[in-house]
Amino acid sequence: MTSPWRERFAAEARAERPDLAALCLLLAAEGDPELDERAMDWAQIELDRLAGMLPYGLRGARAWASAVSELLGERLGFHGTPADYDRLSSSMLHEVLRRRRGLPILLSVVWLEVARRAGAPVYGLALPGHFVVGFGDPEEGVVVDPFAGGASLGAGPAELAAGPRTAARTMDIVLRILNNIRAWASTRPEHSGVALWALDLALLLPSHPAALRYERAKLLVERGEFAAGAAEMESYAVVVDVIDPPAAVRIRAEAMAARALLN
């Protein structure tokens, strides 16, 4: 049976203008049983409160970037450390707001949500292996790194200078957060349940890589759910058969091997 949180997550993901903070909180509810409606309200109110601490009358991308980073990074101490990569809580918005620590993309969500609430022209920028925040026109190059407390990247690393910058869409940000959670769980077999709910949520997004269905099927088999995993492999093989028949044959063989484990 689908949980109420998942139903709300799916509905929000398909909304005309999805709420990034709400999606981050709803996905966090899968990993934190204590995250209830009251705690979600606190997180949204906290983002509003932080936005209200920004000065009035700001004009221009550099002024916004400086003000938001001075507030969040310098005054309030939001930033990341290498140790944050070892914590599942670093991918959960309410915990990042509480601890003021997190992964680059979750700290960037804080920057984005606080700045947007205050009226700033702001966007997320997905770099290979990192996530940062830009202000104003992407071609202006006003980019800060929330993981480094909002340090300005200026012309920045090679990734920034390589070409046009495309603002990350809300669904791309959410999928990347879920990918990070799966990556965290993949090195911790005892947390395969975390990887499973992250996959389940990714599959609820309006657009997602089809290969996630195969990944979920393999995970079910690894967890000892052989019949369910085999059934999903067979279903996925039907889709793959249209574009890659040899791959479909291999997947069906994997499904047969999984069913054999039931004997």
Q: Could you characterize the architecture of this molecule?
A:
The chain is an alpha+beta fold and 263 residues long. The protein folds into two domains: 4-170, no CATH class; 209-263. The protein is 57% helix and 7% strand. The chain contains twelve helices and four strands, in the order ααααααββββαααααα. The protein has helices at 4-13, 20-31, 37-52, 61-75, 93-99, 104-117, 158-161, 170-186, 192-202, 211-222, 226-240, 245-260, and strands spanning 122-127, 130-135, 142-145, 151-152. α1 runs antiparallel to α2, α3 (37-52) crosses α6 (104-117) and α10 packs antiparallel against α11 (226-240). The longest helix has 17 residues, at 170-186. The chain is elongated. The mean pLDDT is 91.
H/E series: HHHHHHEEEEHHHHHH
Q: Which overall shape is indicated by the principal axes computed on the Cα atoms?
A: elongated
Query: What structural category characterises the helix and strand content?
Result: alpha+beta
Give the terminus-to-terminus CA distance: 28 Å
Number of helices, where a helix is a run of at least 4 consecutive DSSP H or I residues: 12
Biggest sheet strand order reads 1-2-3-4
Task: Report the sheet-strand fraction.
Answer: 5-15%
Tell me how many strands there are: 4
